[in-house]
């Protein structure tokens, strides 16, 4: 009986280790030295609240040395984003797309079911074109605190590289904001740094 208990304990430890290893496996492939990244989204991508050069895509380009395309359009909802998404990928042929979209849907009380479907369709398009995806979670409307569940669900269903709470934390901190829903230059800098750290942790950057 004692040997059986020891065996079961060892087996449990091994299984736990395997599960932990699987969960921590990088979700992205290394980007080439000349890779293009498309930053796709709304005003938080465009850089409202700071100069264009202080937007997170511009600052991410400075940090990584890669070509980062700012494909953000202020006020855009996911249905409009979906309508142009494939054309943007066709135009720039990126290895990676950073998807930060859906805030305007949330602010305007759009159906989260439809918002999720629009984002899922974008992810499907990216997958069909062999473009890797980094998803950034957008907070709920109530003081922009908790991340909307749909982002957690998408990240799990598609096994995406995912930044869950970073944007939410920045939007909770007044010194990083230009208004209630936009970052300032310092906030965008921190977001760019966090994105670069995530890309490194997930295997895209060395």
UniProtKB/TrEMBL annotation:
PROSITE patterns in the record: PROKAR_LIPOPROTEIN
Domain of life where this protein originates: Bacteria
SUPFAM superfamilies linked to this entry: SGNH hydrolase
InterPro entries cross-referenced by the UniProt entry: Ester_Hydrolysis_Enzymes, SGNH_hydro, SGNH_hydro_sf
Listed GO MF terms: phosphatidylcholine lysophospholipase activity
Name of the protein described by the UniProt record: Arylesterase
